[in-house]
Structure formats: C-alpha cells, structure tokens
Design brief:
binds adenosine-5'-diphosphate, Four Helix Bundle (Hemerythrin (Met), subunit A), glutamine synthetase activity, 20 strands, 13% strand, Creatine Kinase, Chain A, domain 2, Gln_synt_N, 697 residues, seven-stranded mixed sheet, binds magnesium ion, alpha+beta, 3 domains, Gln-synt_C, nine-stranded mixed sheet, single chain, Ubiquitin-like (UB roll)
C-alpha cells in the first residue's frame, strides 16, 4: 500500500492544492467566501474553475459533474466532458466559472413534494465552496446545493447550510453577551459512526427481496444468532479485513478521515467511524462513505447492506451522530472542563441543548424516521422512540444543584485500580455510558443514537442546529437586555433546568417502566414514520424553521409530502415483492415438497409390506395446512394492497393504511412462510437462509 500520508486527500481540491495553484488574490477571495460566507465574484470563479480543470485533467479526469443530494437521500450526478470543439476539427478542454458556479439539471424527476408544478422542469445546482471538490471515477465532482426555479430547497444540503449559519449567528450573540470578543465563528461538528452488513454476493443475487428492498422479507431465525456475543470486536476474517483495507484507502484518497473499524454486535455486521469534521463536510463525506462501502464490496464478491433492518430477529444498523459546537479559536462549547459547576458558559450551552431537545423532540424524532428505522426504534436493540437525554452522574448532580440555587461542586472522577500491581492506574471518566439513551452526553459532545444507517445525516443535523439556534437566541435575548449578565445567567440556568429537566433520563431506556414514566412526564412516544411526519405541519415547528431561515412553511410542507410519499412507496414495493416471492417462489416450492411427500407415501405403501409412513403423513398434513394458510394470507395481502392502490384520499391516511394494514399483513404472511421454512426440506427451499447469509463470509 502506498504511504497513507501520500494518498490522503490525493483526489481532493483542498486548501493545500488551492494555495499552490491559485493566484494569491484569488486564493484570498475564495478563502474569505469559505470562512466568512461572503459572496464570490464571478471573475474569481473563472480563475478557480481553470485551476480546478488543470488539476483534474492532470489526474486523468475527463468530465465534471455537479454532485448534489436530492430528497431521495442518495446523491445525484450528471457528467459533462470538458471537451469543446475548435474550428480545425479538434477539441480543447474547457471549464468556465459559470459552469463551476451553476448547473441546470432537469428537476422534474426528483421528489419535490408539490414544490414544482409538473410543467416546471427547471432546477438549479449551486456550488458549495465550503465543501471541497474531488475526483471520483475520472470526473471532477463539485459539491452543490439543489433548488427549484423559484429558489426553494429541493435537497438535503441547502437546509443544512442554512442551519449552520443560523447556529453561528445565535451562538455568537450568546458568546458576545458573555463578554467574548475574540470568537468570530461557531461551527457545528459531526462524527457519524456508520454501521453496515456484508454478505456474499451469490446469496444476495438469489434473494429478490434484498435486491428490490434492501432487506429480507422472509427468513426463519437461524439456530445461531448473536446470543454468544462473539462477533462484537471479534478478530476480522481475511475477506472482511481486505475489504476494510481497500475501503479505508479509497476513503482516504477522498480526504475522508476514516479512523475506526470493527465487527459489530450482529453476525456479518461491521462499523466504520471517521474523525469528526464540520457538519457540512461530514455529511458529504458520509454520503461518499456509503457509496464507497457498496462499491468496494463488489470488488470482493460481497454486497454491503445499509438497510436499518436487513434481518429480522438480528440487530439492525444505525448511525450514531456525534454532535458538538466549536469556535474558530478552538474551543469546544460542550467541553465541561475540570470543574463544570463553575463553567457558566458550558452550562449555558448545555442547558440550551436540553431546552431545544425538550421543546422540539417531535422534530428530532421525525429527523430519524424512515420505513427501515421503524423496525428498530422502540424495539429491544435501538433507543426507544421516546426522545430523552442522558447526562450521567456528574452533570445531573450539577443540574440538581442549579435547580435550587447556584451549583457549588462537581463530583470528580477517581482513578480506576484493577488489582494487578503491574497494570497502571487508569484515569476514570466522570460518567459511565448509557447505550439505551437516544441522546447521550459523551464527555464533550452529544451522541444522537437514533439516526438511521441508510439515510443522509443532513436531517438530524439541520434539525439539531436549528432548534439549538432557537434556544440560544432566547438566551441571547435575555442576556443582551440584562444589566448584570452573570446574575442573569444564574437565573436563566435555574429556569432552564426547572422547565426542561423532564427530558433528562439516566436509567434504562429499553425498559417498560420508562415508557410509562415518560408518558407521565408528558414526553411524546411517536410510534412510526407516518405519525412522525405531523411534526412538519405543526405551527410551532414551521415557525422555528422559518424564523431561522432554514425552511419556509412551503418547504416544510413539501418535506411532509416527500417523507410520506417515500414511506408509502417503500411499503408498497415491499408488499409487492412479498407477494411475488410468496406466489412464485415459496408456494410452488412448498407444493413440490408436498408432492414429494405424497409420492413417498404412495411408493412405500405400494411395496405392500405395511411399512410405517406416519412421519410422511403427519408432515404432509402440516405442510398442506400451512400452505393453505399461506395462500389465504397472500389473498389478504393482495386485498389490502389493492385497497391502498385504489385509495384516493389524503396522503397521511394512505400512510396509515400502509403502516397498519399492508405492513401488518406482510408480517402475518411472513410468519406462516417462516414456519414453513423450518419444516420444508432445504433442497426444496427457494431462498438462501439466514445462516447461509450471516455466517458464510
Ligand atoms: P465512542 O462513541 O465509542 O466514544 P469516539 O469517542 O471515538 O467513540 O467518538 C465517536 C465519534 O465522535 C468519532 O467520529 C469522533 O470523531 C466523534 N467526535 C469526537 N469529538 C467530537 C466533537 N467535538 N464533535 C463531533 N464529533 C466528535
Ligand atoms: Mg459511539
């Protein structure tokens, strides 16, 4: 392998390349835009474009593309060659500032949620110079935002960028009110830990459900699951290790700070975590990571599954969104320091986050909702669908003190002694972990653990940035008016703790008692994606998104439509695939097996020696009865699918039909098929089983 330091970011037009290749004045102007958000002059863009083209062509690129993130949740790209004809029948390679700054892909085939009438096809992509351009597959990729003809956001990036500006503005107000005169910028930072499954390509190819829906719609529980807990952090098998090595290398070339890799809890499950970066770049990088995870798998005869729940009864995948706020002078605003009770700035930012999460928990819940995650949230492997915050002993103790007046002490962590004199004493963290909490403080950041594995992290982060910006703006309003700021901070802290401590919960989030307790505290428990979408219609939520310039009311409403539409289509595809597999693969196979049992009974009986055929007879009866039940459930599923298909009412009501009728009937049908799988001769079973898929790499 080439030296890591040499390959790192070798395909990225980053600061170092810009400094080297751009004229000084151009570099300065561009840096100012990137760092201070000032508008970019067109002549600067021309110079940058030419430098980018030369750099890309030297690296073998032939095309460029505006790389954007439509509401499908995946990325989109349309490649144009650099070629331009000359009068003598040859070509030159061109790339103008105009082409760098603006693109015009046809927007009509991307989800717009009613933002665009059918006849309005125009959409624009606009260069996001805060995320560096890169080369992928011989194309120069320009990260861009995507909007409609009238400027409404049609993508995941635009609201994220808007929310970062909002948080910057409000955080600076608070810092200034606290007497800080040096900080000029506050950015949110994110490190997403990405979970994924790897299975053998041949197994995948034999499963229509995996190909069409990303998850198994059938499959009995294997005799071995994850109960031995022998996969978590287990040593890597050679094929997996080779895969991870190549993946790291590909990610490093794109400047992605891939850092940690390990086997996860479920068999065939793994994780990759990067070092955190600013939210926008981290979001782009996570999209690229997911893309490369799939692509590199192909080279190893593997398939990477990013679905939240590819296998029933086996842990699914999530993404832990580690989030914090940092200043341009290097301060992590969520760093408690050695005596957090005296660190009023930290406490103010901390309680602002608590307030934000408490007041807008429905928006956060929505930001983690998709059809795949519905299998996890509230089930016994992922945080419950109830949003609460884990703070740990030390901070909870400080908040308790604040509730009744100023805090006077911080519980300190001791050293840990292991009882072996040759082992060094270990400094202990002030607080233990709690893996059952959806929103956990982990030392100097919050870990939002509900995020779905397959989705863009833009949603959770633009919601977090916006709601925290709102909490900070209310704090700033108070501090800016106060005559004695320190006194006002203390009053504010007590108020914030009193009002919002109900969202703090340090206990076991997986327990039934918590569900009851949360209901008593008035915390919402939003069951599925369908119900969660209502958060986008509430006046309070629309107002906060609009106030901070993140989404207009119309944009919120369009996202409501897009989320429901996506959900309904997903369940519809799953139901149709369930029917196809049940009718054309399982039913015929089971009938063949029953016929073979009947033949066996006939043949043996015909020998005329009175041999016992009771086993075959019993089995035939059982198989026949389950087959009849399967057939009945196929008919019932067809009925509800037709009902949904013919329904012409409200999209929300249609969602409820998909969730509570179609989805439920899919599960009932599956149960019968899975029981059949456990008794039908493997030779006859048409699908690779769970143990075939989970234990064969
Ligand atoms: P664990 O979750 O097991 O504690 P780490 O401590 O390595 O693992 O952190 C997990 C992720 O959190 C990593 O991606 C890391 O870069 C990220 N992280 C660390 N500090 C911050 C921060 N200030 N802001 C955002 N993410 C952070
Ligand atoms: Mg973690």
């Amino acid at each position: 392998m080439s030296k890591v330091t040499e390959i790192f970011a070798s395909n990225v037009f980053n600061d170092c390349v810009m400094k080297e290749r751009l004229p000084k004045a151009t570099y300065k102007a561009l840096k100012k835009t990137i760092e201070m958000g000032t508008a970019l002059a067109p002549d600067v863009a021309d110079v940058v474009a030419a430098a980018m083209r030369d750099w890309a062509v030297e690296k073998g690129a032939t095309h460029f593309t505006h790389w954007f993130q439509p509401m499908t949740g995946i990325t989109a790209e349309k490649h144009d060659a650099f070629i331009s004809p000359t009068s003598d029948g040859k070509i030159i390679l061109e790339f103008s500032g105009k082409e760098l700054i603006k693109g015009e892909p046809d927007a009509s085939s991307f989800p717009s949620g009613g933002l665009r009438a059918t006849f309005e096809a125009r959409g624009y992509t606009a260069w996001d110079c805060t995320s560096p351009a890169f080369i992928k597959d011989d194309s120069l990729c320009i990260p861009t935002a995507f909007c409609s003809y009238h400027g409404e956001a049609l993508d995941k990036k635009t609201p994220l960028l808007r929310s970062m500006e909002a948080l910057n503005k409000q955080a600076l107000r608070v810092l200034k009110a606290l007497g800080n005169t040096t900080t000029t910028k506050v950015t949110t930072t994110v490190g997403p830990e990405q979970e994924y499954f790897l299975i053998d390509k041949a197994m995948y190819d034999a499963r229509k459900d995996l190909i069409l829906t990303g998850r198994t719609l059938f499959g009995a529980k294997p005799s071995k699951g994850q109960e031995l807990e022998d996969h978590y952090f287990g040593s890597l098998k050679q094929r997996i290790s080779d895969y991870m090595k190549e993946l790291d290398e590909e990610l490093w070339k794109l400047g992605i700070l891939a850092k940690t890799k390990h086997n996860e809890v479920a068999p065939a499950q793994h994780e990759l975590a990067p070092i955190f970066s600013t939210t926008n770049i981290s979001t782009d990088h996570n999209q690229l990571t997911m893309e490369l995870m799939k692509k590199v798998a192909g080279k190893h005869g593997l398939v990477c599954l990013l679905h939240e729940k590819p296998f029933a009864g086996v842990n699914g995948s999530g993404k832990h969104n580690n989030w914090s706020m940092g200043t341009d002078d290097g301060v992590n605003l969520l760093e408690p320091g050695n005596s957090p009770h005296e660190n009023l700035q930290f406490l103010l930012f901390l309680t602002s986050v608590i307030k934000a999460v408490d007041e807008y928990s429905d928006l956060l819940r929505l930001s983690a909702a998709n059809a795949g995650n519905d299998h996890r949230l509230g089930a016994n492997e992922a945080p419950p669908a109830i949003i609460s915050i884990f703070l740990g002993d030390q901070l909870t103790d400080i908040l308790d003190q604040i509730e009744n007046g100023p805090a006077t002490s911080s519980k300190l962590a001791s050293d840990l002694t292991i009882g072996v004199t040759t082992l060094p004493p270990l400094p202990k963290d002030a607080t233990d972990r709690n893996r059952t909490s959806p929103f956990a403080f982990t030392g100097n950041k919050f870990e939002f653990r509900m995020t779905p594995s397959s989705a863009s992290i833009s949603g959770p982060n633009f919601v977090l940035n916006t709601i925290v910006a709102e909490a900070l703006s209310e704090v700033a309003d108070r501090l800016e008016k106060a005559t004695d700021v320190e006194e006002e901070v203390k009053v504010l802290l007590t108020e914030l703790v009193k009002t919002h401590k109900k969202v703090v919960f340090n206990g076991n989030g997986y327990s039934d008692e918590w569900v009851e307790e949360a209901a008593k505290r008035g915390l919402p428990n939003i069951k599925s994606t369908v119900e969660s979408t209502k958060a986008l219609l509430s006046e309070k939520n629309q107002a906060v998104l609009e106030k901070h310039g993140v989404l207009t009311k119309v944009e919120s409403e369009s996202r409501y439509e897009i989320t429901l539409e996506g959900y309904n289509k997903t369940i519809n595809i799953e139901a149709l695939t369930t029917l196809e597999i049940a009718k054309r693969q399982i039913l015929p196979s089971v009938i063949k097996y029953a016929t073979s049992l009947a033949s066996s009974i006939n043949t043996i009986t015909a020998v005329g020696i009175g041999a016992d055929v009771s086993v075959q007879t019993e089995l035939l009866k059982e198989v026949s009865s389950l087959t009849a039940s399967l057939n009945k459930n196929i008919a019932l599923l067809e009925e509800v699918v037709a009902k949904a298909d013919n329904f012409d009412g409200d999209i929300y009501d249609l969602g409820m039909i998909y969730r509570y009728e179609v989805f439920e009937q899919m599960n009932t049908l599956r149960e019968v098929a899975d029981t059949l799988e456990t008794i039908v001769d493997k030779e006859f079973w048409p699908l690779p089983t769970y143990s075939d898929m989970l234990f064969n790499v």
